[in-house]
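User: structure tokens for this one?
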Amino acid sequence: MDTYSRKRSAPKEPFDSEPAAKEKFNYISSRVRISVEGFSHGRLTDEIKSELINHFKSCGDLISVEVPTDPILESRAFVNYHGHLAKERALQLNGSDIGNWKALVKFAPREEDLDYQVSLRYHRSLYSDLANDERFWYGIAVLGYDTSLPEDQVKSILTEHFSSCGVITHVFVCTPDECTNIYFSKKEDEASAMDLNGSKVGGFKITTMLLATAISNPRLAPGDEPTVGYSIPAPFLEFAREINKKRDDYMTEWRVKERRERVKARREQARREQAFKAS
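Assistant:
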């Protein structure tokens, strides 16, 4: 049996003889943890934390609020309460508006931590692979072109326009933002592309801007606070949906395997118990 499903052992001394110990035990055992998702990426941790405190403090005895330093990697914040009544009150806020975002509120018991940690480690590994992919180290954002054109045509026209700058490794057209990210194999190529700021593409004057990448704008180390000017690296945002899909698929397989292992362990335990009784 793993540590997450092991039952609490009984105290050696009766609580009646130790009132303080009993009070401490009751306080700890009545703690409730709620997870909250939905906050925007790239915002300061203190801002998110302040919003969560103000929004959830009326639900009960608030102990603490834990907010991840890198929301794109750790999508959940945790609100910790003392008292089981806080659970129902907090869950009623699911779907409520917090500023300009909606809160996805769930009960998050400690027993789920193994599942979450496995998911988080795999999620981090995918972003680490992306951060170390040299194809996305140098890049620019291009704005001002004819946004009425189809995505494939925009990609073709801009690829041709910037091909003289060097080897283009990837082009991403973000239609909602009316912007296209173009990545190069070398820093010098990136600089050459920036020199085309103000040039014309199909009669439209374009604007070029440097992209935040894993090289120009490194990820925060665990525990670090975002600073003014910090932005999530552009490739992280571009591939977020794809990475989340990979994580979900991986976790589906992991959970199936984990259940099989638990069933196998229970059967083995039952077999041993029967063998012991038979002896």
